[in-house]
Amino acid sequence: MSWTIESSKLNQSDLLTNESLFFLGNGYLGVRGNFEEGYSEGDKSIRGTYINAFHDKVDIEYGEKLHGFPDTQEKLLNIMDAQSVQVWLDDERFSLFEGEVLDFQRKLRMDQGYSERIVHWRSPKGKEVNITFKRLVSFVNREVFVQEITVDPVKGVERIAIHSELEGDVSNFVDPDDPRVASGHAKRLAAGAVYETDGCHVAGAETHETKMSVCCSSKTFSDKENHDYESNIEGAKAQETYTFSGEEKITFTKRNVYMDSMRYGQNLEKKAVQLQGELADDRFEDFLEEQARYLNDFWKTSDILIDGDDDLQQGIRFNMYHLLQSVGKDPKSNIAAKGLSGEGYEGHYFWDTEIYMFPFFLMTNPEIAKNLLLHRHSLLDSARQRAKDIGHTRGALFPWRTITGGESSAFFPAGTAQYHINGDIAYSYIQYYMVSGDEDFFRNEMAEVLFETSRLWLEVGHFHNGQFRIDSVTGPDEYTCIVNNNYYTNVMAKNNLLWAGKIYDHLKKEDPERLTELMNDLEAEEEEIEMWKEAAEKMFLPYNEELKINEQDDTFLQKGKWDLDTTPKDKYPLLLNYHPLLLYRYQVCKQADTVLAHFLLEDFTDQDTIEHSYNYYEAVTTHDSSLSFCVFSIMASKLGQKEKAYDYFSKTSRLDIDNLHGNTKDGLHMANMGGTWMGIVYGFAGLRVKESNVHFSPYLPEQWGSLEFNIRYRNCLINLKLTEGKVVYTLVEGDAVRIFHMDSEISLDPGVPVEKRTSL
């Protein structure tokens, strides 16, 4: 069970949710878990196939547009549909919504990388058949989506017909009632006419504004030579029909190759057909074997073993698997808030990447983590321009939501005003360096990004009464916007500025030639760096003496508290039921804000303040954001509130599987998935990455018999196994390394287990 997600539900709501849960992808290509044959007439489906970062630009319409508002936004596009296959038994079309379903199993196999539907069906006229649908999106050949359909007649079938379609004229999904989903611009692709060449049907299309191209070549074949075949092409749609005798089992395969002009340049259709030729000898079984080998390597390093709770074991594997399926693995892409599983948030990249998803890859697959940072670095010029658009004279302001670097947020109070994204990106660069020790990256990409983000903080903030203060920003809590001295923003800025100063001092001593080059490129002076250091030293971090907490911002505690106890359940999430201005006037948090800052930068305050702050903000937080539960779980672990930590963690691990937020149909909550991993590794195992080393303060939840996982640190693979009252550290790969356990330094030698007591 823990390696498989299963469902046999056929009601409309569950079908839409399962389209997300059963999506398949590889970081480049994503295909929603739609039924090949469709649903019953009138049922809705969000039928989707997506390429990471393949988008168009659409105009943003304002009633009143002011200076610096973005003119356009980027939108991930649904591309040609190659999923459709229908099965006919004589004159009856197979459908799970007609006749009698004698048995139906649907499975996502996370250890083998494919999904399947196994159906025993009786038609309205009494014909019986077993049909198995299998599909995979290849991790090895990223352009490839393959389907295999096996039809085994049981009773009364004289003829079997299989109709396959390639549809080039598609649209995006819209929902005008939900701001988290696009409400317009559904038609952004100009589809060309489908044509046939070298045994393939080929569909191409071009975006309206960005003039990006995409194509799909589709090749079908069966294991039986004796069959009739017919092909019909009308405009942007191709149909193929195979007809067989109903006397024996048949296997039908459909291999689809997708390419886009961002990665493959010109002559896409020729290249896609050429790849079909190169794969001509590969059958579905060959792709399955490649998929299994790839995933075996992934799980060998990344798996988390939980003894004592099968549901949570399933949940954590589900989350890690979908992160792998959605993360970009090339310089053109990142990982969107919904990955490649749906159209929620229009395929945009947020701070979710750096704070919630990046840590999983950093500690298990650092090559992927580095790619995410390099992708952000590739957008630095756009961030510099965005800073100028806002009115800053220097520095870089990374966009709140983007695909290729332009700001796609039209609502600046909860978008552009979240300057903390600069600190979030800087934080991830710092974390990567501390884990990897990558000096070349430190001198180049990291130095440039931290210098440019630090310059912006001097533009945003100002010195006043001996303090450096940052006004008119929004922190992570989007129910409190445009405030002065948001604690999270200020402390992340402080960290950013401190490290920029460290980089300067290190380069000045160890690599003055590189420092000179960097300073010349950025037209920076030494006086500016001294200002960074002073701003960091004098950064104002709000603190309330009476409550002994870090104030979320200058005015948060002056407001009345929202009465969460009497708010009807059907009024959550609040953002869909109350005007933003009403929310802004109350002490009510959408998600962790100050509590998140205490997790990320715990050394900037003391334990008592962290505990008092946690207790205070917990009482005013709705957790309307899926980014919230995991942080409260992690900090409850730190504070010894173990029952509460486990309860919050339980809500993160199965948030999508159980559709706890009611919107999984629009795509999976990728940040929460990363947060689930964090809840185990940063929460129960107490991992913290510090400048000196990695530190652990582990304990085992009483509900579990054991917990085991690996992390990568400085080219080493370290295994941790927790049982009641103890933890065993084992260096699996790499040379001897030193780590910290409960503030005591220990040495790990290759293959030699080290046992330590844990907190009970």
TrEMBL record:
<feature type="domain" description="Glycoside hydrolase family 65 central catalytic">
    <location>
        <begin position="317"/>
        <end position="678"/>
    </location>
</feature>
<dbReference type="InterPro" id="IPR017045">
    <property type="entry name" value="Malt_Pase/Glycosyl_Hdrlase"/>
</dbReference>
<dbReference type="InterPro" id="IPR008928">
    <property type="entry name" value="6-hairpin_glycosidase_sf"/>
</dbReference>
<feature type="active site" description="Proton donor">
    <location>
        <position position="478"/>
    </location>
</feature>
<dbReference type="InterPro" id="IPR037018">
    <property type="entry name" value="GH65_N"/>
</dbReference>
<dbReference type="Pfam" id="PF03636">
    <property type="entry name" value="Glyco_hydro_65N"/>
</dbReference>
<comment type="similarity">
    <text>Belongs to the glycosyl hydrolase 65 family.</text>
</comment>
<feature type="domain" description="Glycoside hydrolase family 65 N-terminal">
    <location>
        <begin position="8"/>
        <end position="260"/>
    </location>
</feature>
<dbReference type="InterPro" id="IPR005195">
    <property type="entry name" value="Glyco_hydro_65_M"/>
</dbReference>
<feature type="domain" description="Glycoside hydrolase family 65 C-terminal">
    <location>
        <begin position="687"/>
        <end position="748"/>
    </location>
</feature>
<dbReference type="InterPro" id="IPR011013">
    <property type="entry name" value="Gal_mutarotase_sf_dom"/>
</dbReference>
<dbReference type="InterPro" id="IPR005194">
    <property type="entry name" value="Glyco_hydro_65_C"/>
</dbReference>
<feature type="binding site">
    <location>
        <begin position="590"/>
        <end position="591"/>
    </location>
    <ligand>
        <name>substrate</name>
    </ligand>
</feature>
<dbReference type="GO" id="GO:0030246">
    <property type="term" value="F:carbohydrate binding"/>
</dbReference>
<keyword id="KW-0328">Glycosyltransferase</keyword>
<keyword id="KW-0808">Transferase</keyword>
<protein>
    <submittedName>
        <fullName>Alpha,alpha-trehalose phosphorylase</fullName>
    </submittedName>
</protein>
<dbReference type="Pfam" id="PF03632">
    <property type="entry name" value="Glyco_hydro_65m"/>
</dbReference>
<dbReference type="GO" id="GO:0004553">
    <property type="term" value="F:hydrolase activity, hydrolyzing O-glycosyl compounds"/>
</dbReference>
<dbReference type="GO" id="GO:0016757">
    <property type="term" value="F:glycosyltransferase activity"/>
</dbReference>
<dbReference type="InterPro" id="IPR012341">
    <property type="entry name" value="6hp_glycosidase-like_sf"/>
</dbReference>
<dbReference type="InterPro" id="IPR005196">
    <property type="entry name" value="Glyco_hydro_65_N"/>
</dbReference>
<dbReference type="GO" id="GO:0005975">
    <property type="term" value="P:carbohydrate metabolic process"/>
</dbReference>
<feature type="binding site">
    <location>
        <begin position="351"/>
        <end position="352"/>
    </location>
    <ligand>
        <name>substrate</name>
    </ligand>
</feature>
<dbReference type="Pfam" id="PF03633">
    <property type="entry name" value="Glyco_hydro_65C"/>
</dbReference>
